[in-house]
Design goal:
The chain has about 350 residues and is of the alpha/beta class. It has an 11-stranded mixed β-sheet, sandwiched between helices.
Length: about 350
């Protein structure tokens, strides 16, 4: 039975959530509707610990619509009806009806699914971090992604990158990622990165990219207006399906130490996570950080993260504008870039650069 305090916290979460959905007018319009709907908030108390309620709920509703559920709510989704989508401001009563009719289906998704958003452009951040690591370490690196989902970012060296008027990566890449570079000087040479000796993911629920329902769930987590991100996701999933990386199923707190021991002794390893620590329950975040650091017991560790300011690594005071940061074997945190959460833009920490 949900407590009044649980419902209040969820209501506050949705009331504040419009600031998160910067590129989704529909979700911004629906957040206050959910914040005032006790029945839907009660349903969300059944989610797994650490899962962000707004991402999970909107993903679940989107998933049912993508699966073919016939309900007038679909008329508000550009992902389903394109430019003819109805005005978001009118969607509130329709959403409430949808939640009443499909409460059972929504509840099942909320209980069993995880927020496994695959923002393909975050590979741009990892590519930049690999360049920064390459300035410190010339050896091939073993790449580990925690919260890897479908393993898209583990193919970071196989994508094409367009930053401003510069292009990096293999010319025959089937996936091209474009981001705005906000620096006054050009970006560094992102072709000057270490070779990747091995690539391994860690995820609570690894995604089988050949499973249509699994792919639909990943698509459902893309906001309905972001068609370019959805197109990139499909292209990246197809690319990964040709050579899926190894993904270890399990909780990072439990599996990271053994994973690190399995890497060649003395060889450098890079651990990356993006919007993952934010889903770790607050009382387990210290253990999460220690588990990642344990991968460095057998060789030099370069730990890279792109997390919101609300979930910085090890108490590091992150830039509230959004930040990519890392630490090397010495443990000293080094901010690398200002970044948009979905990597539509990136730039130097100092706007004058």
């Amino acid at each position: 039975m949900a407590t009044g305090r649980e419902i209040d916290v969820l209501s506050e979460h949705f009331a504040a959530a419009p600031a998160t959905f910067t590129t989704s007018p529909l979700y911004r319009a629906l957040c206050p509707v959910v914040a005032g709907d006790r029945s839907t908030l009660e349903l969300l108390t059944g989610r797994r610990p650490g899962q962000q309620a707004s991402y999970l709920f909107f993903g679940a509703a989107h998933y049912l619509l993508l699966a073919g559920v016939a309900h007038p709510l679909r008329d508000f989704y550009p992902s389903l009806v394109g430019s003819s989508a109805a005005e978001p401001a009118d969607a509130g009563p329709v959403l409430r009806d949808f939640c009443r009719r499909y409460r059972t289906e929504l509840g099942e998704l909320v209980r069993t699914r995880l927020v496994q958003t695959n923002v393909v452009r975050r590979a741009v951040a990892l590519r930049y971090a690999l360049w920064a690591i390459g300035q410190r370490c010339a050896d091939p690196v073993h790449l580990v992604e925690v919260g890897s989902s479908a393993g898209i970012h583990l193919h970071v060296d196989r994508y094409r990158y367009l930053l401003g008027d510069r292009v990096f990566g293999p010319a025959d890449a089937t996936v091209s990622l474009d981001s705005r570079w906000l620096g006054r000087t050009p970006p560094p040479d992102l072709d000057d990165v270490p070779l990747i000796a091995s690539r391994t993911g860690v995820d609570l629920n690894p995604v089988d990219v050949t499973d249509e329902r699994a792919r639909r769930w990943l698509r459902a987590l893309v906001w309905p207006e972001n068609q370019d991100a959805a197109t990139l996701l499909h292209a990246a999933l197809d690319a990964v399906a040709t050579e899926p990386p190894a993904v270890v199923a399990g909780d990072a707190v439990r599996v990271c130490r053994d994973l690190g021991r399995g890497l060649p002794p003395g060889e450098p390893r890079v651990v990356f996570h993006a919007a993952t620590r934010m889903h770790v329950p607050a009382d387990r975040r210290v253990a999460f950080d220690r588990a990642i650091d344990s991968i460095g017991d057998g060789g030099p560790l370069y730990h890279v993260w792109q997390e919101p300011p609300s979930a910085p690594h090890g108490g590091h005071a992150a830039d509230p504008r959004g930040e990519l940061a890392m630490h090397g074997p010495d443990g000293v945190v080094v901010p690398l870039l200002r970044v948009d959460g979905h990597l539509r833009w990136l730039g130097p920490l100092d706007p004058a650069d």
